Amino acid sequence: MLETLSYMGQGFLNALTPLTLLLMAGGTAIGILIGCLPGLSAAMGVALLLPMTFTMSPESGLIVLGAIYCGAIFGGSISAILIHTPGTPASAATAIEGYQLTLQGKAGKALAVACFSSFCGGLLSCISLYFFAPLLAQLAMKFGSPEYFWLSIFGLTIIAGVASKSLLKGLISGALGLLLSTIGMDPIEGAQRFMFGQASLYEGINTTCALIGLFSMSQVLILAEKKIRQRAKANKFHDRIALSGKEIRRITPTILRSWIIGNLVGILPGAGASIACFLGYNTSRQFSKHKEEFGKGSIEGVAGSEAANNAVTGGSLIPMLTLGIPGESVTAVLMGGLIIQGLQPGPELFTRYAPMTYTFFAGFVLTQFLMLGIGLLGCRGFAQIARLSDAILIPSVAVLCVVGSFAIHKNFVDVVIMMVFGILGYLVRKFDLNPAAIVLALILGPIGEKGLRRSLLLSGGNPAILFSTPVCWVLIALCVFGVCSPILMNRMERKVMAASGGDASEEDTLPPRTSE
Amino acid sequence: MKKMKRCLILLMALAMAFALAACGNNADTTSPEGSALADGSAPADPGQEATPTEEAWTPEENITLIVSYKAGSGTDNTARVLAAYAEKYLGKPVIIENLEGGSGSIGWTALAQAEPDGYTLGFLNLPNFNATIVEGLASYTVDSFAPICNHVTETSVILVKADSPFETIGDLVKYGQEHPGELKASTNGSRASNHIGAQVLANSAGFEYTDIPYGGTADQLLALRQGEVDFSVAKEADFASFASEVKVLAVYSTERLAGYPDVPTMGELGYYDQWLGSSRCIVAPAGTPDNVLAFYEQAFQALMEDPDYLQAAESAGMFTDYMNREETGALIQQQQAFTESLESVW
Predict the structure, then answer these.
(1) In which domain, by residue range, is A355 found?
(2) pLDDT digits (tens, 9 = 90+) for B225-280
């Protein structure tokens, strides 16, 4: 134990060299930039810069990649908040509240909340990385096919929370997303479904493409439909960025909850930040004392989503480092980086290579502080984008959408898919359906389908396997809670309202309101 | 404030111009206005057109190496180790381009359609590459590519969990024969390489099993480690980081593997007696001039004998296996014939 502690201390000393700090700052800045450009995801950023780390020592290389990872996950929130374009799927839920805040002229505040929450989420996730890694890694081993099925069902229950106005429309949106998620190769039989001869659809609809289309391209269409005003969208522009003590106190419980959610989701292979942000957002809504603000720009919603997705970063490293299981694409690339450096993931990283590993962890901790610094410094500048006139914003966002979807695979089919989803997103909003629910179902559909079908294959068709382990029952309980709590909460609120005679009407999260 | 706004507008415009320029390279032929927008008035760089056709060819610009799988995938890792040492022998840096999707067919289509000027090369993953042709995902054939050399070869092995009751392949087969369909094997996808391995074992040993596709080798082996399935077929480099958690029961090779001298081959035990595994070879688009191919063949051979490279490859768990142009071409043809013959094993 004492030895481990000395490794930890030594790690900080190793990481605190000027060169390493410079690399960290550079990595974080590049990460933020990559993250805020739609189409360039954290995984791509890490992969693009991976070759540059070959010439570095393993610890410096890993620290740079880790900095890019954290920076990119935070960076995604910038474009989500400012132009309703989640830079990475991990920020899809941030766009819901963040953009509403921008419309109210509170872009700076929203960015500061996102930055602060990302910092807290990332920093807290280091705690589990340091002290509970081997223990938590066992969780990844407990998640078999039946557990993944229930996890996806639990994720889908969020639709009940996201679609607060009309549950029916939320369910229609979810079903649409699930239907779209069946496009591509059948995961069990290998049959081609709804591909119409397009090899590009073999691995299904790219989530990032769908996301850019549904959130951003549809936003462009909706903005373009209105008369273009030369004035900036947000007439009122609050330049106050610093968070007050009261605001920090308000988002602290949310951040703590999102940390736990993000961390646990991060540990599970295949789940990842895009699910964590929705879970974090939804939980912040369920427990909020200011529910009426949700859908109209709630800083708690932004904090819930951003703290959760950055808490994934530390969590996702755990199974990769201890078990050699890369949980998502970023950690897969990081694992590649390790292997190329001649280091095999596994227990040896914590014994034989402990100095290297703890230097990397220390770098990971320090990166969070740099991210907070760079992010807060940048907030004021970034926020100015919200003051741009629609005449500039519409073509700029449209170009970003096209470039972003092309950049994913350098494949023009992806641009076409993005456009189709843009039109779909436009129609969806016109009919008051829920784009967030579609994305959620698109992400969770394949996980659930594989989980269910594999479980039934394993049991020879006996559904009892779905109820066979304690983890299953925990997830089932969470599903029941997820479905019932919004209904119960609504009822309670109505009672309270009837008692007080207030008229805080429930508002939909969807229509992008412009503050005139 | 106003000044700041103007600056920002300018910045955004610049960012977009950069983005356009970035994809301009690919879109040059289709959208000339894209590149025109990007660099204002300057037309395409005239220096790019000159490709010398003399006898001895050497590259004058960066070389693109297409990997048809994601960054961080097995192929990507091995390609990057190779690329890290490539400049010394090729004279120019090698840039890895990941074009994933369509089970690899997206990248191979792009490679087949690339200019055969020696500046675009790529990896073919055998037999996955052949499977895309057989399954009708491809617009290319084996003749769309000119072989250069083989890079990595990995042999398939049969794995069980370390605490599995099956100590030998005989135990496994016996149980499978006595309890038809009860043994469960995780595979990396329906009809994917490791499913082929399991199927070949079951056919040659005469038992029935249930295959559970997991869509990827990492997930497939996680299921084995979790105890969700009884056995699995994987390649020898796939389980280096958790080798103590699994037992290797047999190898799909004509002779025993250096890393597992005590593990019998399948043929020794009277089951499938051919080699089975995967190879990654480097190819150029068909039509690439002979002197270019000859240059790369020699350069890659020298590179794969470089002690620094070999050291890095070994610590990364790679099985470097250089083959010349002819041997590589023969391997691609042989794997194609093998993949086409597989219809009979299902």
Answers:
(1) 2-499
(2) 999 999 999 998 888 878 889 999 999 999 999 889 999 999 999 999 989 999 99
Residue B252 structure tokens: 């799909």
Range 395-424 of A in CB contact (< 8 A) with B? 396, 399-400, 403, 406-407, 409-411
Task: Please report, rounded to a whole number, the percentage of residues in chain A having pLDDT higher than 90.
Answer: 35
Neighboring chain A residues of B236 at a CB cutoff of 8 Å: none
The mean per-residue pLDDT over the stretch A459-488 comes to: 88
Is A203 within 8 Å of B106 (Cβ atoms)? no
Q: Is residue A504 part of a domain?
A: no
Half-sphere exposure of A62 (CA within 13 A, CB side): 30
* Reported ipTM exceeds the 0.85 cut: no
Look at chain A and report how many structural domains it folds into.
1
A with B: how many residue pairs have Cβ under 8 Å apart? Answer: 160
Domain presence at residue A512: no
Rounded distance between C-alpha atoms, residue A133 and residue A51, angstroms: 28
Topology annotation, domain B60-152+277-344:
D-Maltodextrin-Binding Protein; domain 2 (3.40.190)
pLDDT, greater one: A57 or A117: A117
Q: Which CATH architecture has domain B155-269?
A: 3-Layer(aba) Sandwich (3.40)
Q: Tell me what the pLDDT averaged over chain B comes to.
A: 83
Number of H helices, E strands in chain A: 20, 2
Whether B60-152+277-344 shares its CATH topology with B155-269 is answered yes
Q: Which residues, listed in sequence order, are joined to residue B303 by a DSSP beta bridge?
A: none
B288-302 per-position pLDDT tens digit: 999 999 999 999 999
The 3-class secondary structure across A479-514, one letter per residue, is: HHHHHHHHHHHHHHHHHHHHHHCCCCCCCCCCCCCC
Residue B120 confidence (pLDDT): 94
Give yes or no for residue B282 having a pLDDT over 90: yes
> Does the pLDDT of residue B343 top 50, yes or no?
yes
List all residues of chain A from 215 to 254 with a beta carbon under 8 Å from chain B: none
In a domain, A224, yes or no: yes
Nearest CA-CA distance, residue B54 and chain A, Å: 33
Residue A197 lies in a domain: yes
User: Which sequence spans correspond to the domains of chain B?
Assistant: 60-152+277-344, 155-269
Residue B239 contacts residue B246 (beta carbons within 8 Å): yes
Facing residue for B106 by CB, picked from A399, A409, A450: A409
Whether A144 contacts chain B with CB within 8 A: yes
Q: How far is B5 from chain A (nearest CA, A)?
A: 7
Closest in B20, B80, B225 to A51, CB measured: B80
From chain B, the residues in CB contact with A324 under 8 A are: 241-242
